[in-house]
Amino acid sequence: MNSTKKMFYIILAACILFAVPADSWFQKKKTIEGVEYITNPKKPSPPNNAQAKLILTEDLSIGGVEKQEEIFSETVLINVDENENIYIADMKLNNIKVFDPSGGWIRTIGKQGQGPGELNMPTGIQITEDGNLMVEEVMNRRLSFFTPEGKFIKSVSTADKTSLTGLLIGPKGTMVGRELVVDQNKMFWTVKKYDSALKELFTIDKVEFPNPLAGKINPFELMIIFNLDANGNIVYGTSKEYEIKFFNPQGMPIKSITRKYDPVKISEKDKEEILERMPETGEINLKERIEFPKHYPAFQHFTLDDEGRIFVRTFRQGKQEGEYMLDIFDPEGRFISQMPLKANPVLWKNNKLYSTEETDQGFIIIKRYKVSWE
Fold it and tell me: Using CA atoms, how far apart are residues 209 and 186, in angstroms rounded to an integer?
């Protein structure tokens, strides 16, 4: 190839490169009044030398029909203590099943009821700083505390709150949760931080909640997701847009992570499956009140690992049945990879992922994966 042709191809390649907007590949970062804003395009290029490939190796599976103690209802919550014992709170069976690190059943804590040590729709399970269990009971409107061995310690009433759910324990016993409040004849879901005695410290956000007894209901309109990172920062997002916000332990905004995306359309089949899973309520037929939007929200939920990576489970389906695409961001908020995953990530701890999955027969199983990166 002569020098003229070579120069032509070099210039042509350069023109093609610069014709593609830089925003289609690279993240943008700016700081405004102390808040970092990280913008990720639809198809970003991972940062140089980033460990972008997530490798999951299954090493434990609990669930099925062979053992009574391994039968779970549709809705379960998972937590793990420092000894890697696994605690599974079952919202419908109203108990907590405890398994050792090898998956062997140890004990079952609680039964349905309203008395001391009894449970009524547990909607959260947390490990306290002293190693005890805090169980959130939405129907009994209280928090119940147990030793790891299952001995009942005490209950703390939440009856002074209209509805308090999703409590997470942070440093020094502080808590973050979702509370329904009434203000000037309107209802709002709020995300608040409380001290160890459940005294309100501050509010992160306030989202109006349409009256469920009047008008149509969008089942995705009020998806509110929040988490705590290793530094006690509050990580928060809603169904409105693909944005994950960070607030420091004092409630001040410190970071915003966004990603441009193509919305996923809700098909007629999707609508039928969602309605089929909805429980019958008796007096009010909620299924007739549901009005689906044209598209799913930006994401289903997100989780964080010990290093601060963010894992966002989207509504974009993979090639296999039950797979959804998982967007992965590094601790800086930069998109590093995406992968199809059938597992529903619940908890990342000590380089392990704990997830819930559903068998072909419809049974819930709990799986644990070893996590590595390339």
Answer: 8
